[in-house]
């Protein structure tokens, strides 16, 4: 069917849809990255094998690599957790503290928080988990997980890179 302007209704509909898509994409491209607080990785409570100093150093490196990967993605702007470092240090488990991680995130002005933990079943079997919680009322927490084989720097490096690239940034 021809419109009074000499173009088909279908052509007008297609042009309108294309314009809407351009506007949506431009808005998404110009969106500000989410401000997030990224807390250091912890060992999960109840781990049957006690962590060593080497394990703690590995967690520190993994935390730094995770922050770098998030920042480099362009989706997240990292908020310093330094103002709550002492409070976090007094918390044995950020996953089981009755919402203290949320409170710490709000205190530093974050829109969301990342909490990471490693479950060490043995020196061969480990599980790395990352939890993201938007700090808006009623927002659901998202969980990401990867299994590690071997308690080595290489397995932790590969694990966090895989988790970020193939899970966190894909969803």
Provide an overview of this structure:
This protein has 171 residues and is α/β, with parallel strands linked by helices. Helices cover 42% and strands 22% of the residues. Strands 1, 2, 3, 4, 5 and 6 form a six-stranded mixed β-sheet that branches. Helix 2 packs parallel to helix 5. 23% of the residues are buried.
Q: Spans with pLDDT under 50 lasting ≥5 residues?
A: 11-28
Mean pLDDT: 85
Main sheet attributes: strand count, strand direction, barrel closure: 6 strands, mixed
Helix content: 40-55%
Q: Name the quaternary structure.
A: single chain
Report the structural category: alpha/beta
- Indicate the radius of gyration in whole angstroms: 22 Å
Q: Distance between termini?
A: 42 Å
Q: What is the general shape?
A: globular
Count the DSSP helices.
5
Strand element count: 6
Beta-strand content bin = 15-25%
H/E order of the elements?
HEEHEHHEEEH
Secondary structure blueprint with pairings:
Blueprint: H1 9-29, E1 34-38, E2 42-43, H2 53-73, E3 76-79, H3 85-89, H4 100-107, E4 112-120, E5 125-134, E6 142-149, H5 153-168
Parallel strand pairs: 1-3, 1-4, 2-4
Antiparallel strand pairs: 4-5, 5-6
Helix pairs in contact: 2-5
Features:
6-stranded mixed sheet, 171 residues, 22% strand, globular, 5 helices, alpha/beta
Brief sketch in words of this structure:
The protein is α/β, with parallel strands linked by helices. Helices cover 42% and strands 22% of the residues. Residues 11-28 have low confidence and may be disordered.
């Amino acid at each position: 069917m021809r419109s009074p302007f000499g173009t088909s209704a279908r052509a007008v509909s297609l042009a309108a849809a294309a314009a809407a898509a351009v506007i949506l994409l431009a808005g998404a491209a110009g969106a500000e990255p989410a401000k997030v607080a990224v807390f250091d990785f912890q060992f999960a409570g109840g781990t049957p094998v006690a962590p060593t100093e080497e394990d703690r150093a590995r967690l520190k490196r993994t935390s730094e690599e995770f922050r770098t990967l998030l920042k480099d993605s362009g989706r997240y702007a990292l908020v310093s957790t330094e103002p709550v470092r002492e409070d976090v240090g007094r918390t044995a488990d950020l996953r089981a503290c009755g919402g203290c991680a949320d409170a710490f995130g709000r205190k530093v002005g974050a829109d969301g928080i990342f909490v990471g933990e490693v479950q060490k079943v043995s020196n061969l079997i480990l599980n790395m988990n990352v939890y993201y919680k938007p700090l808006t009322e009623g927002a659901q927490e998202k969980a990401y997980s990867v299994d590690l084989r071997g308690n080595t720097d290489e397995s932790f490096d590969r694990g966090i890179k895989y988790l970020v690239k193939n899970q966190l940034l894909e969803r």
